[in-house]
Amino acid sequence: MRLAEAWRVAWDALRANRMRSALTMLGVVIGVASVVLLVAIGTGTKQRVEQQVEGLGSNLLLVVPGRLDMGSAPALSPLTLQDVDAVGRVVGDPNRVAVTVASGATVRAGNREDFTTVQGVLETTPTVFARELGRGRYLTRADVDTGRRVAVLGDAVARSLFPDREAVGQQINVAGVRFRVIGVFTPLGQSLGVDRDDEVHVPVTAAQRLYGTQRVDAIAVKAPDRERIDELGDRIVAELNGRHPGTEFSAVTQEQILGVLGDILGILTGVLAAIAGISLLVGGVGVSNIMLVSVRERTREIGLRKAVGARPRDIGVQFLLEAVLLTSVGGLTGMALGVGGALLVAALSPIPAAVTWWSLALAFGVSAAVGIVFGVVPAQRAGRLDPVVALRAE
Amino acid sequence: MSRGPAIEAFDVSRTYELDGVSVPALRGVSLTVGAGDYVALIGPSGSGKSTLMHLLGGLDRPSGGRLVIGGREVGSLSAPELARLRNETIGFVFQAFHLLPRTSAVDNVALPLVYRGVGARQRRERAAAMLGRVGLGHRLHHRPNQLSGGEQQRVAIARALVTDPTVLLADEPTGNLDSTTGAAVLELLERLNVESGVALVMVTHDAEVAARARRRIAMRDGVVVADSAADGGAGT
C-alpha cells in the first residue's frame, strides 16, 4: 500500500513538471536508443558475415601456404597442379578439390572495359563452393585439360561489359588474350565489402599461361563429412609438407574463419555498445541532478510527510521510484526509437541491422539501474532530512 | 480521560551546534501534558517554545533530560520508531497549513493513514468522515488552491485528527488567517478537544487566544517562567 502510494506520488511529480521530466528523460532516451541501434548494427553485420561464410558451401577446408596468424603476410605459394592431384588422392575424390590462381586484370569487350579479378579454377568449383550458373554452362574437365580460352563471368562483370546484349557467346579480351564467354553466374551480392559478382573464372591452365606461372594460390576441399574434417586437414597438410619441405601449410575450416570473424565483430559490437553506454551514463547524471532539484523543491513536503509518520525509508523509496520511473519511461521510449531506427537503417541503407532481445533487455535493465544508481544519493538525502529543518524551508 | 499523561518532560534540554558553538534553546524544562488538556504555549520569539513544540511532537530528540511521549522514552527510539510514534499519537497543525498541492482535500487528510498501512478505500472513508466533522463534507475533492485559508486550515486539522491521536500540536494555527476565520478555526479546535478528548497544545503570540486556554505555559530564554497548572489551575 505504501509502495502503491509511492508510485502514484512519483508519477504525479513527473507529470507536474512535464517539460523538465521530458528533458531529463531525453538523455536516457538518446543513450538507450543508441545502445539498441548500434548493437543492432553490430549484430546484423555479424549475422550477415556468418551467412556469407556459410554460403561458401558446407564442410569447406581451405588449404593455404603459411601459418594462419592474424597479420602474418601471405607466403608465396609453392603449390602446383601436381600438388592438387596429390591432395585429390588424399581426399579420395578429385571432384571435391578446387583451386584458385587469381590476379587483377583488365577485361575488355568492344569499347567497354572492366578491371576485375580473373581466377584460374578447376571445373569442380561450383560443387565445392556451391556456386550456381544463371545462364550458359560452366567449365568442363576438357576445358581445363586443354587450357581452352573460355570464361564464366560474374553477374556484375557481365552487366558492365554487355549492358544491352546477352554475354554468353561473346568474345572478351583478358590482358590481350581473347576468351569466349560460356556462362554467367547468378548474383551473390556483397560480402565483407567485396562485390562477389565482380569476377571472371577461366580454366586454371589458361590462367597459368596468361600469368606465366606454374603455381596455384590455394586449394579448397569439400570434406565428405563434418566429423573428420580436422583429421582430413591434418592429412592434407602432412602430404603437402612432405612434398615441400621447408614450407608450412595450414588447413582452415569455416568454423575457424567464423570464429575469427565472430571475435572481431563481437569486439566491434562491444565497442559500439560501450560508446553508446557513455551517453546513457551522461543521461544518468542528468537524472541525478534533476532529482536533487526535486528534493530541494519538495523539502517542505518531505518535512510534512515525516511529521505525519513517514519513515526515512518511505521518503527514500518515494524519490528512488521517481528516478527509476524517469529512467524507465526514458528507457522504453529509447527502445522504441532504437528499434525504429534499426528498422529504418535496415530498410533504407545497405547496413544490416538486427534487433536482438538481449540488447533490448540489457538496455531496459541498464536504464532502470541508472535510475537506481543515480537516484540513490538524492533519495538518501531526502530520507535523512531533519523534519524540523524541512518544515521550516521556504 | 483517565489514560495517564500524554507527554511527560523531565528537565529536558536542547542545544544546537552552530559552527562549532553550542547554542542552548531549551535549558531544563519539566512539564506534563495530561490527556484532554488544553494548553497555550506563549512567549516571545527565541524563548524556545518552537523547540519545545518540536520535542513534544517527536520531531526532534532532547539533548538532555527525559522525554516520554505516549509512554515511550523518545531518547531510546530509532528514527523509524519515532516516525511511528508521531503517526500514532501526535497530530500537527501548522501556521502555513502545509497541505500537499495538486492533491485533493480527502487525499491530503488520508496521508497519515498511508504511513499507517491502511488500505486505499478505508483511507478515503475515514478521511471523508473526518472532513465531515470539520464541516468540509462538501469539499472532499477540492484542491488546496481551490479552498479559502480557513478551509485549508480545517483540512489540515482533519489530517491531524484522522489517526485519532492523543495530542494535537498547533503552531500558531490562526496566524495566517483573518480574525473572523481565525476565531472559527479556534472554536473548531476547542470543540474537537472537548468532543474527542484529544489534548490540545497550541503555540501562540496572541494574548486573546491564549486567554481561552485552560492552562497557559509561558516561556522565556529556554525555560518555563510560568505554568498556570502549577498555580492551581487545570491540568495535573
TrEMBL record, chain A:
Protein name, per record: FtsX-like permease family protein
Membrane-spanning intervals of the chain: 21-42, 264-295, 316-349, 355-377
Protein source organism: Verrucosispora sioxanthis
Alphabetized UniProt keyword annotations: Cell membrane, Membrane, Transmembrane, Transmembrane helix
Chief place of localization: membrane
Record keyword Isomerase present: no
Family, as annotated: Belongs to the ABC-4 integral membrane protein family.
Membrane topology (UniProt): Multi-pass membrane protein
Stored InterPro entries: ABC3_permease_C, MacB_PCD, Macrolide_Exporter_MacB
Example of a GO MF term: transmembrane transporter activity
Domain MacB-like periplasmic core span(s) in chain numbering: 21-237
Gene Ontology annotations for the cellular component aspect, listed alphabetically: plasma membrane
UniProt-annotated location(s): Cell membrane
Domain ABC3 transporter permease C-terminal: 274-387
Pfam families attached to this UniProt entry: FtsX (PF02687), MacB_PCD (PF12704)
Domain of life: Bacteria
UniProtKB/TrEMBL annotation, chain B:
Name of one Pfam family that matches: ABC_tran
UniProt-listed PROSITE patterns: ABC_TRANSPORTER_1 (PS00211), ABC_TRANSPORTER_2 (PS50893)
Domain of life where this protein originates: Bacteria
InterPro entries tied to this protein: AAA+_ATPase, ABC_transporter-like_ATP-bd, ABC_transporter-like_CS, ABC_transpr_LolD-like, MacB-like_ATP-bd, P-loop_NTPase
Single annotated GO MF: ATP hydrolysis activity
Sorted UniProt keywords: ATP-binding, Nucleotide-binding, Transport
SUPFAM superfamilies: P-loop containing nucleoside triphosphate hydrolases (SSF52540)
A Gene Ontology cellular-component term: membrane protein complex
Residue ranges occupied by any ABC transporter domain in the UniProt entry: 7-236
Name of protein: ABC transporter ATP-binding protein
